[in-house]
Amino acid sequence: MNSMTILVADDDPVIRKLFEKRLGKEGYTVTIAADGAEAARLLDTRPFDVIITDLVMPGKIGGIELLKLAKEKSVEIEVIVITAHSSIDTAVDAMKKGAVDYLEKPINFDELFLRLEKISERKALMKNAGDLREAMEVTESSAAQTIQNLEIINSNQQQLLDQLETILTNGRQEQGKRIEQALHLLTNRSL
């Protein structure tokens, strides 16, 4: 089962229904919007992994505007722009503004599913990389704390050894007294 959440924005009710059925059948969680304004409102209510949006929709918010809003909301939202108007310029413009892909109507769903699978794989890799980075930070922090503790232990041991050397090399006291003081120091503090 696919765990990605997808928002589909298209002004054509037949296309919306088709996307809802086909994506739902593949296990995606699908939300549909009749235009860019409705899609923008939905973006404010919950997170989406992918937005599939028509390039040309009625109202003030078309596909490019929705793309910009989505990327402002989260750079992790992937946007696929679809259009019936085949144009390299609009495709390039959409890609420059952050679209992950560009499809022409009528939609080839096999091609769309392959692209969605690649998006899912990339998101999984990014999550794994983030998890590894977090684990490395925890490990580095733990290692730094261990090193600091070892340095303190080493300093304390060096101080004890210096005290023992001072006691044992004190020529003004008899040997038995020096050994007694050294043993007393050792029993009260350990190496």
UniProtKB/TrEMBL annotation:
The modification 4-aspartylphosphate is found at D54. This is Response regulator receiver protein. The keyword Phosphoprotein applies. The keyword Phosphoprotein applies. PANTHER family: PROTEIN PILG (PTHR44591:SF14), STRESS RESPONSE REGULATOR PROTEIN 1 (PTHR44591). One of its GO terms (biological process) is phosphorelay signal transduction system. It comes from the Bacteria.
